[in-house]
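Our example copied in:
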Amino acid sequence: MVYLATVAVALASVGCSKHEQRPAAERPITITTAIRGMEEQSAPQLEEDGSGAFADGDTFTLYVYGADGSSSAIDYTLGATTLYWRELPFAADGTTVNFAACYPVQRPVEGRFGFDLEQASDPDLLVAAPIGVVAGTERPVGLTFRHAMHRLVVVFSTTDADVALDAITTVCRAKASCTVDLTEGVLDTTGARTAAFTEQGARAAFLVVPQDPADVSLEIRLGDQIKRYRLDELAPACGALAGGKQLTVKLGIRNGQIQLDDCVIEGWGDQGTIEGEIIL
């Protein structure tokens, strides 16, 4: 037993020695991911509150950059991509490099890319803010993705038997483009283009870039009635529309009138309740 124990310790020591002697450039980079945010999507797999995870086969853009401005953008596919430190020539052993990411796949130039909600393959842009990693480490690089857009939800209800909620058309006009800076994890809407998005029925959900409520308008159509409101008129106390947050506006139609039931921020802490009334 003593002999076997001695042999086991010796083998373990040899294994550790070989591990320590492996050059940093030959060590693999392990990526782990998590998603925080809003609501369900077909890919990646998200829970109702927007949190979730990527699955093998999902591809996102991994952006790695150093302090000297050197960088590399990689299409990283979970379960398929194997990345080694040697593939990042600017990542000298022991120095700190930064890892950031986004989904869907983009083509960043110096960490920046334009994003347009009307043209995007998937408008629910997910961005992982940069984290510093010591080059050569074999510890997993953990990336947390957050929803970059704001989600505006309009919900209608009624006590009038002759009002068909599925006949309501809601048109949202808002800024729909931005520039994303992965190195800062921020969106810039300077010179943003405005677009109109249309939803039908008792519940309308829109993704918009973060912006001031005064830049967002809602057009509500019910039969031959059309009403237009700026969001800051409906919810004067809601504050700026922030990325990763959801603003829900509940509108009750009663006796031919649309009544503002409440307006709350969901999922990111209570920012107050707004009550009022509007006339259709």
Notes: The longest strand covers residues 257-266.
